[in-house]
Structures are given as structure tokens and as C-alpha cells.
Amino acid sequence: MREPLRVCQTTQLRPGMRERYLELHSAVWDSVEAGIRAAHIENYSIFVRGDTLVAYFEYVGDDLAADLGVLDDDPDMQRWLGLTDPCQLDPEPGQPGGPWRDLTLAWRLSEG
């Protein structure tokens, strides 16, 4: 079995939107979770500290761009993003890729 692609990203919450974002994520729709799993994404977690969000997931498919494209075309995912995206503030406006920004892996505990 090959190693998964480990992806870690960060973004910011808009002022005053923290509670709304957390409320939404306390009951993520089953169809959204199913779509994420169908896109070969595992171990997806989002952490929060103040107004900073950090997401981590492992991609176990063969074509991340294609799998993310399927999510982009999913009507339930688009409705979900219509609720969650307004909660987020692009930390680097005007730069491509926002609002979530990739972090670079600096170190990982080796397999025992």
C-alpha cells in the first residue's frame, strides 16, 4: 500500500462568524461526508484556535484534481459550501488558491 498524500491547510474565520462555523460543523450533512469519502479523502479533520482554522486530510486516490472536481460538481457540496464559505476570510486576498492555504510538511513521526 502506498503512502497517502497528506494535506494540511489553514484559513481564517471572518470576525463574528466563529460560532456559526462551529454550529454548521457540529452536524455536517451525511451527503457531504459521503462525497468526501467518495473523493478518496480519509482522516479529514478541522481544528480551530481563535479565528484560525487548520484542516488535515489524507488523499488515497490517484488524481486529486479530478476527485476535487467531482466534489465541485456535487450539488449538496455546493449548498454546503454556500453556508460555510461566507464564514471564512481569505488570509491572502488576491493570491490564487484561497481561502484555504496549503501548509508544508516539516516533520512527521516515522512508522515504528
Give a count of the beta strands, DSSP E runs of length 2 or more: 5
CATH domain fold name = Alpha-Beta Plaits
Overall CATH class: Alpha Beta
Main sheet? Answer: 5 strands, antiparallel
- What overall form do the CA principal axes indicate? globular
Tell me the number of helical segments per DSSP (H or I, 4 or more residues long): 4
Ends: how far apart? 16 Å
- Give start-end ranges of low-pLDDT stretches: none
Kindly give the count of domains.
1
CATH architecture: 2-Layer Sandwich
Mean pLDDT figure: 95
Strand content: 25-35%
SSE sequence, one letter per element: EHHEEHHEE
Multimeric state: single chain
| Class from secondary-structure proportions | alpha+beta
Radius of gyration: 15 Å
Helix content: 25-40%
